[in-house]
């Protein structure tokens, strides 16, 4: 009977916010056994006190809602290992969160809090920490003591330099410092031997920091939306890259060294000033996703049809008038975006080929 009471309270709360049964089951046994609860983007304004009775929860995601506080009963969730409360209306994160020593993942970014909570220093088991989008003037140096961190998001924090505490996070694999005001990277970045993902998007770089090309473990590099206009011919040093985003940097020429990235799977070159795609792009034998939309390309780069693994190809919003017959060689193509081009009437063979692709966007100018 006691179970029935608090469960009915949770069910009423779920109904109030029209939370789907697939997210929060209305079955009592399933509710008791539930270990993961994802309630992101449900316009939730509060959490019921009864949520503290979901004692088997190990992961809770209530991001992208309208929450401003956590109930005191929250402290009963002693098995919680992953908590995501980012993109809400929290002005204070309660200190009792410091007792959640079992937490491995904590995401509190994009809330109107004014400082990084001091209790985070107690969470020695943290492996992932998201504190991006927090308007704070304090530099939480205690983060250097979180020796197990492998993921750190400090984007959108008005940073003019990478905080010194980052140098002590020797296990770090994923670092986002995007949407800041960086113009350079510190030399200590090379000490992060395990770093495989580096997000530098939307900063104030005038050139790609040379030290980036000494990060030989990098598998993903995002340096889009900076004031670059050109790229150094040094990408061959990053032969482990599988993902590269150099979109929206006023690029007019692709450096030949990009053709040496044998493991590259995804390449973003969109929103630039490119007029052609060089032949060496066909060296990227493992490329599956290529985005060259919103450039100044006037002819379909026919040599791209030699990239046999290509699955997603976006060449929309250029100046292309015709598609070559060789496009039919792209037998693995799943998605093709060619809208926004002044295309002529397509021959029947190409029309037939396009019908075999799962998704085609072909709206013309």
Tags for this entry?
365 residues, mainly beta, Leucine-rich repeat, LRR (right-handed beta-alpha superhelix), 15-stranded parallel beta sheet, 3 helices, 8% helix, 12% strand
The CATH topology assignment of the domain at 235-365 is: Leucine-rich repeat, LRR (right-handed beta-alpha superhelix)
Overall mean confidence score, pLDDT: 95
Main beta sheet:
15 strands, parallel
- Count of discrete alpha- or pi-helical segments spanning 4 or more residues: 3
Task: Name the shape in a single word.
Answer: globular
Q: Report how far apart the termini are.
A: 66 Å
The CATH class of the domain at 235-365 turns out to be Alpha Beta
| Class by SSE composition | mainly beta
Helix content: under 10%
**Total strand segments:** 15
Question: Residue ranges: pLDDT <50 for 5 or more in a row?
Answer: none
How are helices and strands ordered from N to C?
HHEEEEEEEEEEEEEEHE
**Main β-sheet, spatial strand arrangement:** 1-2-3-4-5-6-7-8-9-10-11-12-13-14-15
CATH superfamily of the domain at 235-365: Ribonuclease Inhibitor
Relative strand content: 5-15%
